[in-house]
User: Fold this.
Amino acid sequence: MQAVYYEQVGAAAEVLRLGELPDPAPAAGEVRVRVQWSGVNPSDVKTRGGVRSKTLPFPRIVPHSDGMGVIDRIGEGVDARRIGERVWLWNAAWGRPFGTAAEFICLPARQAVPLPEGVPDEAGACMGIPGLTAMHAVLMDGGVAGKTVLVAGGAGAVSHYALQMASRMGVGKLITTVSGEAKAEIARAAGADVVINYKTEPVAERLKEVTGGRGVDRVIELDLAVNAALDLEVLRTGGEVVAYGSSPLPLNLPFPVLLAKNVQMKFFIVYHLEDADRARATAALLRMLARGELQHNIALRLPLSKAVEAHEVVEQGRAVGNVVLQVEGGGAT
Assistant:
């Protein structure tokens, strides 16, 4: 099979290779998926670049945890009726050497989730990290019903889904920040009640204005290191920050402010969700997908052979939305 892989960390153009690897066979409890689309996420890029560790956990890594495809073989103990099922994948490359940047992948059957009819194939490659991260951030700790919620960076891969989900789950007022009018239009279409351009508007003042001076109940935060001071300023007393990402900068949190405002800070990484939390988020996500309630903001579709370009686009933050690689039929330039 054709696959993209790397055997050392470093710049995408220097370490990513496209070549032939042996076709895998499913073990007991596994399914084999013929991959059609592979999602490229910031965590994939950081791992390949050595941001987390300079030492590879495996001699060779096929990257990307998200993907979509069709089950074509099953291992012992798996229901044969699953053959031919369209599925989306989660945690494919987390703690494993074989991700979705390949024509075939074998993984535990529960990590291949049926993709509802009518959902575009490539959207399936956006569910494992962007979709589940957004859903858990919205659902956790009682959800957002009746609350005033600020979603940072409303045109991003995760935040765009979070806006749509929150708007369908009884949110009281839904606010987001963006850096330009094109992104503002994306955020409004996703359900934001108030869109603030942080490049041209005083964000804290605008938030105080739209909340009547009370502040927001929850911030869903994509970059805590950059936005922590703002988040603490605009939270109401007893409010909460749900953070799923941060820049590699020192995180400065003033304890007196946290204490005086009774701030609740929640952190999570989608790879480590508890089984019950993942099941809840997956079920809610599947309901919305089946009802056609979600827009999928896919910024860039490239063939598998353009994996280097895809990594560079994600690494440089040039994509407004998700980046996916077409694997089936996408090996040649």
About this structure: The longest helix spans residues 275-290. The two ends are 16 Å apart (CA to CA). Residues 2-128+296-326 form a domain with the Quinone Oxidoreductase; Chain A, domain 1 fold (CATH 3.90.180.10).
